[in-house]
């Protein structure tokens, strides 16, 4: 059952490389690799053209102490779509949300905690640093932007100088875009299901939002309790990781 979930996260300096390994199920996360169905990257600078891991290592090393080394869109994907359709939808989503910024993504599809229903979702990591055609070494890429002499500073951050109101508007626009692209993909695939980026109250629905149980609580539930809860939710799985 298609359902809408989208959140934006930030990773502080020193966490980007580890998170990239996590979404790609590399290193100590290799044992969780059975849920990884696709990964890709793009828009990397010349010094990391074929090595996104180097880009995130340099972000961890050279980004400002109080700066975000990466940001991430975490997005639930419709489980009505097969793998090729999920990949095509993801590529459209990346083009619309990321533009020319450096990115790396992974699609995970674990079974839901409460029912054995595939739970595909997207981890889309990206840098807020905007390429501007100037070739920079890694340390310069992540330094402070110099508006008067751009070649002497780092790449400008996309969120730099925006007010809270402008940032909020950007999030709403992203959510609208994600819902629109998912509904397009569902329609193209011949499915009747649709998603809605709006809150329940904005949709005029009285149902209270579901309470997230969390992995620990789900593990403590009996098989019967899981079945009852899953049936109450209409078989809809949680997001997972």
From TrEMBL:
It comes from the Bacteria. Residues 43-217 form the MobA/MobL protein domain. Residues 189-213 have a biased composition (Basic and acidic residues). Keywords: Conjugation. InterPro entries: MobA_MobL. Residues 188-219 are annotated as: Disordered. It holds the Pfam family MobA_MobL. Belongs to the MobA/MobL family. This is Plasmid mobilization protein. It comes from Thermomonas aquatica.
């Amino acid at each position: 059952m298609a359902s809408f979930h989208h959140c934006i996260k930030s990773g502080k300096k020193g966490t980007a490389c580890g998170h990239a390994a996590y979404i790609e199920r590399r290193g100590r996360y290799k044992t969780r690799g059975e849920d990884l169905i696709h990964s890709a990257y793009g828009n990397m600078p010349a010094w990391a053209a074929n090595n996104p891991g180097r880009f995130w290592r340099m972000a961890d090393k050279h980004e400002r102490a109080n700066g975000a080394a990466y940001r991430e869109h975490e997005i639930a994907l419709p489980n009505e779509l097969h793998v090729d359709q999920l990949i095509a939808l993801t590529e459209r989503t990346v083009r619309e949300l990321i533009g020319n910024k450096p990115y790396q993504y992974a699609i995970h599809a674990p079974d839901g905690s409460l029912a054995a229903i595939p739970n595909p979702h997207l981890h889309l990591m990206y840098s807020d640093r905007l390429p501007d055609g100037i070739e920079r070494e890694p340390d310069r890429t992540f330094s402070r932007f110099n508006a008067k002499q751009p070649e002497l500073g780092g790449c400008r951050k996309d969120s730099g100088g925006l007010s809270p109101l402008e940032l909020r508007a950007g999030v709403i626009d992203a959510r609208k875009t994600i819902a629109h692209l998912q509904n397009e993909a569902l329609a193209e695939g011949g499915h009747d299901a649709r998603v809605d980026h709006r809150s329940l109250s904005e949709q005029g629905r009285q149902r209270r939002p579901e309470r997230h149980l969390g992995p620990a609580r789900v593990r403590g539930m009996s098989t019967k309790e899981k079945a009852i809860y899953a049936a109450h939710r209409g078989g809809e799985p949680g997001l997972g990781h």
